[in-house]
Amino acid sequence: MTETLDAIAPERLGHGVRAVEDARVLDRVVGDGVALEVCPLSNVSLGVFDRAEDVPLRRLLEAGARVALGADDPLIFGSRLADQYATARVAHGFTDIELADLARASVDVSRAPSDVRAAVERDIAVWLAETSAPVESGGRGLAPTTAEAPAHGRTDVAAEHY
Questions:
Q1: 3-class SS string, the chain
Q2: Cα-Cα-Cα-Cα dihedral of 91, 137, 105, 116, to 10°?
Q3: What is the domain extent for residue 143?
Q4: What is the pTM of this model?
């Protein structure tokens, strides 16, 4: 990773999860503001990690890394973006607020036009309000661990929950 950081000074790196293995590299990624695209289910499918719980998603965030959650070739790995968020919820214990923060961070480091990013930000806020609100108030009343972990990149949880 150091060679890549030196050679091209990227704004974003795909599959940068291994930055946690070297404190100097992680410090540099954080210090340079390089966004890391993290795709937990493909990391498991490719054998980078044995289990989704082993993907250092939370460690990257706690270190201050900018993280964009991604699906990484859904046709090959059989997982969609919603599955990645379900994995963050189940395997890493992310709350609704943390999932919304992760979604915002993903949008923040995207190259989408500002009007698209603003629309997605509004959608995230609506999702968080509806998901976290009690059912009697018109929300979904979902608890932080409502979803089941995706098996082989699939989940029975409807995408609108993530």
A1: CHHHHHHHCCCEEECCHHHHHCHHHHHHHHHHCCEEEECHHHHHHCCCCCCHHHCCHHHHHHCCCEEEECCCCHHHHCCCHHHHHHHHHHHHCCCHHHHHHHHHHHHHCCCCCHHHHHHHHHHHHHHHHHHHCCHHHCCCCCCCCCCCCCECCECCCCHHHC
A2: 130
A3: 2-161
A4: 0.79
pLDDT tens for each residue of 25-59: 999 999 999 999 999 998 998 899 999 999 999 99
Distance CA(76)–CA(32), nearest Å, equals 32
CATH number at residue 42: 3.20.20.140
| Total domains in the fold of the chain | 1
